[in-house]
Amino acid sequence: MPSAQLPRAVFAMDPVHLPLLFPAPLMARLQRTARIDPALVVRDFTDPAAAPALADAEVLITGWGCPHLDTDTLAAAPRLRAVLHAAGSVRSLVGEALWKHGTTVSSAVTGNALPVAEYTLAMILLAGKDAFTHRERFRATHAQPTPAETAAIGNVGRRIGVIGASRVGRRLLELLRPYDFQVLLHDPYVAPAEAAALGAELLPLEDLLRRSDIVSLHAPDIPETHHMLDRDRLALIRDGGVLINTSRGALIDHRALTDELVSGRLHAVLDVTEPEPLPADSPLYTLPNVFLTPHIAGSLGNELERLGQIVVEELERLVAGAALAHEVRHADLARVA
């Protein structure tokens, strides 16, 4: 297609992410598919310097740091027909005006699901070996553990409870298949036959919490899931059980969780918290039964290129008139991240 006939696209995100999302080969491929200026990365849709490009833009390529897309966006970009998001959820990005306008929205959320699932699998395996407790003990004593101290560890037959057959949850279920786990699943939108096909036994939430050795959260942050693990439900997890959260901190009542962790009854691997970050005086920073990381499970570093590749492929489909592989539909936002 002659260059003049290519659609005009504009980047809208924090420019710090651009080189990792679109390294040189991907950027070249992108520029063969659309007219786009790598030097123009919009952070404010009302910026006069961006006005000429936005006025002509048919496609916005968005990412972390993109302004909210609302009525003002449509006013600045009247020709806009597609938003291709080189990140995860579009829930906080896309406004009602954009959906009503009929703009096509696509997200690289499936690409972002893989590193989260990989991180979770790693933590499940380490938790099953009680690696975090033994690291702390070894640092303090410099002594090898006794057989009595290792009698309860291991991953054979460990019961893994997965809450949410989201994109991350489903990738995790795939990754769990080669291991000798008993996999349990709770998701109100999944039928028992589908759960069985995913390699899991479908259970009500309370039963999953009672039966699991390790519980991993992968539900969306929506009103129905706010503090879904409250004080009463946390109390259902067996003594010594492990809770892993790589989803959103708001899914757990953190005051109740802190009480459980301070008591030493439960262990936790927390990549997300409420609030995020935690206050400086939170005991979770120093408790030996808590492994706390600063929201690193999702795509970072060289993993960002995977998101950029998804966006480039979506743009190629769009230009070719083909159906998008990762389209986000307004109706789906009621129950997905």
| Biggest sheet: strand arrangement | 8-7-6-9-10-11-12
Overall pLDDT level: 95
Taking the sheet with the most strands, its summary is: 7 strands, parallel
Q: Any low-confidence stretches, pLDDT <50, length ≥5?
A: none
Question: What is the H/E string?
Answer: EHHEHEHEHEHHHEHEHEHEHEHEEHE
Number of strands: 13
Structural class: alpha/beta
Helix content: 25-40%
Q: Can you put this structure into words, describing what you see?
A:
This protein is elongated. The protein is built from 14 helices and 13 strands. Helix 10 links the parallel strand 7 (182-186) and strand 8. The mean pLDDT is 95. 35% of the residues lie in helices and 14% in strands.
Question: How is this structure best summarized?
Answer:
The chain has 337 residues and is of the alpha/beta class.
